[in-house]
Description:
- By secondary structure, the protein is α/β, with parallel strands linked by helices.
- The protein has 18 helices and 27 strands.
- The chain folds into three domains: 2-180, Alpha-D-Glucose-1,6-Bisphosphate, subunit A, domain 3 (Alpha-D-Glucose-1,6-Bisphosphate, Chain A, domain 3); 185-407, Alpha-D-Glucose-1,6-Bisphosphate, subunit A, domain 3 (Alpha-D-Glucose-1,6-Bisphosphate, Chain A, domain 3, 3-Layer(aba) Sandwich), CATH 3.40.120; 409-542, Alpha-D-phosphohexomutase, C-terminal domain (TATA-Binding Protein, 2-Layer Sandwich).
- The strands form six sheets. A seven-stranded mixed β-sheet has the order 2-6-5-3-4-9-8, sandwiched between helices.
- 1-O-phosphono-alpha-D-glucopyranose is lined by residues 18-19, 113, 321, 344-346, 363, 365, 486-489, 496.
- The site of 1-O-phosphono-alpha-D-glucopyranose has 14 residues, from loops.
Amino acid sequence: MSIQIISKGPFDGQKPGTSGLRKKTRVFMEPGYLECFVQATLNAIGGAEGKTFVIGGDGRFFNREAIQTMLKMAAANGAAKVIVGQGGLLSTPAVSNLIRQNKTDGGFVLSASHNPGGINADFGVKYNVSNGGPAPENITQAMFEQTQTISEYRILEAADVDLSTLGFAQIGEMQVEIIDPVTDYQALMAQLFDFDKIRALFAGGFTMRFDAMHAVTGPYATAILEGALGAPAGTVINAVPSEDFGGGHPDPNPVWAKVLMDEMMSDTAPDFGAASDGDGDRNMIVGRGAYVTPSDSLAVLAANAHLAPGYKAGLAGVARSMPTSAASDKVAERLGLGCFETPTGWKFFGNLLDAGKVTLCGEESAGTGSDHVREKDGLWAVLLWLNILAERGQSVGEIMADHWATYGRNYYSRHDYEAVPVEAANALMQGVRDQLDAAPGTTHGGLVITSADEFSYHDPVDGSVSHNQGLRIGFEGEGRAVLRLSGTGTEGATLRVYLEQYAPAEADHGLSPDVALKAVRDAVLSITDMQERIGRTDPDVKT
Ligand code: G1P
Ligand code: ZN
């Protein structure tokens, strides 16, 4: 066994984004590519000498090979120990939990989240730090700088480790512990939720469908829902992780989880439906005939979390990303909870959670989580919903109606315009930016603008400021539109338009979102000059 020091491979030095580095699988497979990124990461954190890490992925194509490479690199860089999920599998929230529980120095998640997998699809690697959360800006910046200057990587010439057998293995001087991916995560969920109560719910005939979308939550959901909680076999579908997610997008929304949506809207719908994404951090919640938007889900969870044992003391506060609807603000206001609005991306929640300022947080893009880990957590959200359903003894539809009658309804929809030429997208944004100061008091599409600004976030914990986080336009009657360009799109620019209209507690809550949001949408088309700027007004995806 010898350490090889290999001179720089082909690395184009792309800056890791909020979710680590995501690329085509074939790019990651180029000789030296993965290696250079991993070495750059290890260099950026001051080396691996004597350190302990967690490594696991969502099971997509190249997962196992990448883990073998990373183990040999960790060993060559002097790491003391790596904890790996059996078969190379670990969900993102499970990695976050293992980092925290074992007090490791950090961990790697191999995933491109909800992007498709396979040799012709996507792969990714993200690095999480010792609090269990995504690497903060100073570390991703250091990683980027390393990728620009890296001249060699270190790898041990050694045989592959057998990841199929639980227990300990050795690679060079480094210990490898192969653990069951589910056990520790399940124990954490059992602490937070009333498993007896949920078991009784299922025993009483409550029916559910959980679509694991051929991704990593399959084993977790099967063990917890069908195993520990006694839901009938078949409750979890698409439960075996596959390298290409059955050829689909493992993205839990009404578009990609259409089969589940159709079932939930049919006459034979079960009581409750849910889905999770590739790496298990996103969730979709749907009742019989009742889709719950992620923004509403966050609000309902905030209003009812105290019904679950892990949150019975109440919540310190609730945080939402800026484009997420203000439904959770309504709950926070009434319950006297701290209320925070952060830029898009999970990393901004970390400081608030670490400082004990918030207990729950969430994004409109189907991420919900709490202080139990430092990542969003799909199955956690599903279990909290189940605990609430068990305690309240009402259907999802009844809970929603009750919620809106108490707090009012924030009608909400996100419209995505994909593959927009970058210059046109930038010009559209600049066009709105130029109007911000003069906009209040003007009328667009029949609505009077009451406020307009570009969102800057002042982190109340570390004092840092993040500028240019999206354009916000407020309208009379509590309407709101947000415009921003995606940071994760892959082709051209993706323009995201977030539409929101509040309807007070006593108003009609039965409108279709398209109808309720028509005025705000017309105003957006007018103020952006969308047809002129990008040559169309119909979005590619509406969620
Ligand atoms: C998208 C979502 C955002 C999420 C991110 C990573 O980012 O909108 O909420 O945190 O993916 O999962 P965007 O493409 O909008 O920059
Ligand atoms: Zn994800």
